[in-house]
Design brief:
- This protein is mainly α.
- The chain is 71% helix and 0% strand.
- The protein has one domain.
- The chain contains twelve helices and no strands.
Amino acid sequence: MAELSLRRGYQVLVCSRIRSQLAYRTSFVLLTLTSAAVGVVELTELYVILHNVPVFGGLNLAQAGVVFALANMGFSLADLVFGQLDSIPTLLRAGQLEALLVRPMPLMAQLITTDFQLRRAGRAIISVAVLVVALIFVPPVVWSPAVIYLLLMTPVYGALIYGGLFVVAGGVQFFLIDGAEFTASFVYGSSYAGELPGSVLSIPIRVAFTFVAPATLTAYAPALLIMDLPGPALLPSWLGWLAPLFACTTWVLGWLAWRTGIRRYTGAGG
């Protein structure tokens, strides 16, 4: 009964946030377009590269567009749900975290629900459009059940991996002094690496973004499976099937970092 009441409380908080954002429709539309513009700018960067170099990391523009769209979709979904964890450094400096800790609700759930920003979905919408267009222009894709599964589930696993990285970064904040820039480079750097063909990364960076922060498994490796392409050294395409395993591993690390950080934290009131 208590769990049902708690879940109902989360739903009320999220719905109230969404209603408050939709109440000012012009502002909401402009903010959503701004979020979508971020994806457009990043896509433009990829287009400029491939306009001058027809093949980038063994992929043409359409094939690189598939990687870009899948990675952006996964990250935008993670940002929609877990992006509020970026506020932890501000809460720590302002001494406001204690007000959340004394409430009979998990801290992470409070951070997620009390500042739910629906406008961040704009980036995901752009990613879906890019994916549809890119799939039209890539060499014929064999629409097997495996390919359909990868297209549907890769953004989900990507969102879980990026979400786990958000949680790891949030937990690390309890051990750092003003570590927002460091953790932002870790999370958003992983997002940028995930949008690129993994073959363009140097070997050490490729290993780091595959087996430490598995950004290449959020889009690149599954995209190779979808388009039936081989992978580069240390990043074979079959690793795309292991995205769920890496998502679980990332969340285990996130849970450890978060739990240890919360237990270690001592506020101004002791």
